[in-house]
Design brief:
heterodimer; A: alpha+beta; five-stranded mixed sheet; three-stranded antiparallel sheet; 17 helices; B: alpha/beta; Oxidized Rhodanese, domain 1; 2 domains; five-stranded parallel sheet; two-stranded antiparallel ribbon; 10 helices; 8 strands
Chain lengths: 533, 224
């Protein structure tokens, strides 16, 4: 029987039965001010539970529902998210098919939602497609390690108290990012100073340096990113425009994240005033967390002109107001005294010098068992065929460097140095791929020697680099693989490029660049060599 | 400045230490139980300036997560409550070498002592060294720490290669923002490692139960 109010008036519609569910709402979707039906549909005027629940949408955030739920008010956001890399997975689809020399596909067939059943597509179905916003959720949980998918609600539920409605928030917690971004380049792990290690590492003498994630991965503790130490969360840098794929850069422009280091740290960053605020983002103005000056100016991102409303500019200071927790942080300016040799280092990205470490995996074998069975993340059932990945030679340390198509020097990591076996392939495929990465392990700049005298940094792999009688030689620490390069190399002193062309177009240093880097500092240390791990 | 330790007599050093320890209530009998070699060793380490640490050094240790030292604030409790260096213990000067105070400090750890300036903490470092604790005092104390590390100002020192540049200090200051309620960012739950390692080379493909009832027993794999 529906509950009555104190006045004896019978509540109408959904709240006749769901009054207790009034708990848990945040101000943006306050219970009672917004009806249930815009998000959940159903028939609030029905006489029975069955009729009332006819057409009910239990999970409005799933992208299969979002056009008629979240999209009623947030149409631009939903449209952008549905086409964003987090939803389409177009990047991993293209790179995986390229590995198998399969055609890249177009339109829907170039996305995770449009996967077929080729060897590459089945691998994606079995091992990769869980990190995919189009994956529908059928239950809510807030497990940071295993949560995947769910469309809008993959990110926008930070709290789900027992017996209450999930609390929706634009202040997306880092825990919501962790489920997907603790894999592949492992950004969420790196940022928190956690790095995966191979299981035998637990035999190290000091187990206090090791731990295990809830999903069983063995990890070690390394220096966290300096922004993490300052309590900054992902959304303090990554704008909603950038994450949701709104206001895409013009064709041909760098499609990377909205935010760049220089947006905050560079002294000549763009400025914006309230009267020139982008109309679509005017809602941000009421969230500005500090008292405004009469002619208050704001920083904007260079790539998309997004206002950085949480950064307070004063005469000689810039402060970042954290979005998750209270408190403001001084923003150190990029100064010329602290960045000498700007002409010589003009091609370096900030992360090339300031990335303390990056996770690197130098051995991988991926094999298919046609007699096995495995969960298909798209079909949501167990199907025939099983892909298995094995890895070895994991190393967490200063990353190698490479060159992007726009001629910037950036950190790179082995995307895969792998052998690939499938009954449909005539022979086992060998692939050597390195990929640019922003490791999110920001710290003090690396030393001169760590680039100019490091064979690993130069893409040669670990080993002994020495100059004898005016000639540079390199003795690799690891054995050479089928393509003639050492197991952890991307190039050689002869400037040999990897076989095939990586989809992102990045390349290792060429011969001219290698020798210029080596000869840029005068005295080589005869004992300099990379530690062998 | 180089100091010739042979010019110091054991007796003179013992007398100096007796004064110091007497000031914090320790019995003179314990002073005389120490050997002249102990005094000479401590005096030599002081002469080599091993008993002090700069704000730069300490800030780097803290920011880099070095764990083999403990910081002791010897100022009054009211000063400590008003602001202190991240992670420090508040142990007053008289309590420092008393049993109660000593119990809070592990003998295997280096101790960094600070007061408002340098004087009291320098005395404290000497006292601790005499009872066998590897102790150093913070040059300039908390007053200097507040000016130099927490609230760095641009100045002539930024061109001195021996000191942290202004930019680096500004970045380091981010590590000490607890005064504004700043804590480190989100960390996922990490469990202690069991003593028996799972010595397998399988890629990290955690077996994960599906929430779907029909597939409750199905195991999903995930790639690297």
């Amino acid at each position: 029987m529906p509950p009555t109010t104190r006045s004896g008036h019978l509540p109408q519609g959904c709240i006749a039965c769901h009054e207790p569910a009034g708990k848990g709402f945040t101000d943006a979707h306050r219970f009672g001010e917004i009806l249930c039906t815009p998000c959940h549909d159903g028939r609030p005027d029905a006489g029975t539970k069955e009729d009332a629940h006819s057409g009910l949408i239990a999970f409005p955030g799933n992208l299969s529902n979002a056009d008629r739920t979240c999209g009623r008010c947030h149409a631009d956001h939903v449209k952008a998210v549905q086409a964003s890399p987090m939803a389409t997975g177009a990047g991993i689809v293209a790179s995986t098919r390229e590995l198998f020399t399969e055609p890249p596909g177009t339109g829907q067939t170039a996305t995770l939602s449009g996967l077929g059943f080729s060897p590459a597509d089945v691998l994606l179905r079995k091992l990769c497609a869980s990190c995919h916003l189009h994956q529908d959720k059928s239950s809510h949980s807030l497990d940071p390690t295993t949560d995947r998918g769910g469309g809008c609600l993959a990110c926008h539920i930070n709290d789900y108290p027992k017996g209450a409605h999930p609390a929706l928030s634009v202040r997306v917690s880092d825990a919501r990012c962790f489920g997907c971004h603790s894999r592949s380049s492992r950004i969420s792990l790196n940022y928190a100073g956690i790095a995966e290690v191979e299981p035998p590492a637990s035999q190290r003498p000091d187990p206090s340096t090791l731990g295990r994630l809830d999903d069983g991965r063995l990890v070690e503790f390394l220096p966290p990113d300096i922004h993490h130490r300052a309590g900054m969360s992902c959304i303090d840098c990554h704008t909603s425009r950038g994450v949701m794929g709104m206001e895409r850069p013009e064709r041909g422009a760098d499609p990377g994240p909205d935010i760049l280091c220089i947006d905050c740290h560079e002294n000549r960053s763009a400025r914006l005033e309230l009267d020139t605020w982008p109309e679509k983002l005017e809602g941000q103005i009421k969230r500005i967390p500090f008292a405004l000056l009469q002619d208050q100016k704001f920083l904007t991102t260079k790539r998309r002109g997004t206002p950085l409303w949480h950064i307070e500019i004063r005469a000689t200071e810039k402060w970042l107001h954290r979005k998750q927790d209270p408190g403001r942080l001084p923003i150190p300016p990029l100064t010329r005294p602290s960045h000498p040799y700007t002409a010589e280092h003009g091609r370096l990205s900030c992360s090339a010098c300031h990335s303390a470490w990056a996770p690197q995996c130098y051995g991988c074998h991926t094999t298919y068992d046609s007699n096995g069975n495995q969960w298909d993340h798209l079909a949501k059932k167990t199907t025939a065929g099983k892909w298995t990945e094995e890895r070895w030679n994991v190393f967490n340390g200063p990353p190698p460097l490479g060159v992007t198509p726009n001629n910037r020097i950036v950190p790179v990591v082995p995307g895969m140095i792998m052998t690939l076996a499938h009954p449909g392939l005539e022979t086992t495929i060998f692939r050597r791929r390195f990929a640019p990465i922003a490791p999110h392990t920001t710290g003090s700049a690396r030393s001169c020697d760590s680039c100019h005298r490091s064979s690993l940094a130069l893409g040669l792999g670990r080993g002994r680099l020495q100059k004898t009688d005016g000639r540079w030689t390199f003795i690799p620490a690891l054995t050479r693989l089928g393509d003639g390069l050492p197991a952890d190399a991307w190039t050689s002193l002869k400037g040999r490029l990897e076989t095939g062309s990586p989809s992102d177009g990045a390349r290792p240093f060429n011969t001219d660049e290698l020798y210029r880097i080596l000869d840029a500092i005068p005295e080589p240390n005869p004992n300099s060599h990379e530690p062998v791990h | 400045m180089r100091i010739d330790m042979s010019r110091y007599s054991t007796l003179a050093i013992a007398g100096m230490i007796a004064v110091l320890l007497g000031a914090c209530g320790r019995g003179a009998s314990e002073v005389v139980s120490m050997s002249g070699d102990d005094f000479m060793r401590v005096a030599a380490s002081i002469a080599r300036q091993e008993d002090r640490i700069t704000a730069d050094q300490l800030a780097r240790w803290i920011a880099e997560g070095t764990r083999d030292f403990v910081i002791v604030d010897v100022r009054p409790e009211s000063d400590f409550d008003a602001g202190h260096i991240k992670g420090s213990l508040n142990i007053s000067l008289p309590m420092l070498v008393a049993d109660e105070g000593r119990r809070r400090i592990s003998a295997s750890q280096t101790v960094v002592v600070y007061s408002n300036g340098s004087e009291n903490s320098a005395k404290a470092a000497v006292m601790l060294r005499l009872v066998g604790v590897q102790a150093s005092f913070l040059l300039g104390g908390y007053n200097h720490w507040g000016r130099y590390i927490l609230n760095p100002k641009e100045g002539a020192d930024q061109v001195d290669g021996e000191l942290l540049t202004y930019t680096e200090r500004r970045a380091l200051a981010c590590s000490f923002c607890e005064l504004e309620g700043v804590a480190a960012g989100y960390r996922p739950p990490v469990q202690a490692v069991e003593t028996t390692p799972r010595d397998v080379h399988q890629a990290p493909s955690p077996a994960r139960k599906q929430s779907n009832k029909k597939a409750r027993k199905a195991i999903a794999s995930e790639g690297c």
